[in-house]
Amino acid sequence: MRYGTQLLTYYGRRSVLTFLMGLCLWPATVGRASEELPKESVLPFMMANKAVQASIEACRKDGYRVSVSVVDRAGILRAMGRADGAGPHTIDSSRKKAYTAASLRRPTTEMADLINKVTTLQALRDMNEHVLMLGGGLPIDMGGEVVGGIGVGGAPGAHLDDACAQAGLDAIGAAQKVSVTK
Q1: Is the overall model pTM greater than 0.85, yes or no?
Q2: Domain locations in the chain as residue ranges
């Protein structure tokens, strides 16, 4: 007895026909399901690292020893650097500023000013342990889509942290978020 005949005898013609029909329809179902999935841009590691390096260098040229962190849109660390001589506290502050900017999709200086003016928003400070409402965090906006955040900690003033963070955005072609003043 041939193999095909054995299959028909063993499984029955209906079962084989049902299986073959399902096999033919399966690609159409998979195609539709993948079309329904949202598409998101991802911040590549090399780009995140380039932003970190540019920010550290901008601050170094001005005499500031800082730490810089870049997170993705979910607030997960993508790259981090600490300049020689930067204080240990700058590591956490840069990461938290980057997280806050990415999560809230706003510069942290803007958010800090807002919660100081609108007292009902002060609870944002306690949203979770990763939020830090100090200047130095900027969202990374590529083509109108926030793909992450960059945070700088250690310069002697929020406006200086912002300027160094903006240098990182400029290095990767992200949208400008602050006007640089020193």
Answers
A1: no
A2: 3-36, 45-172
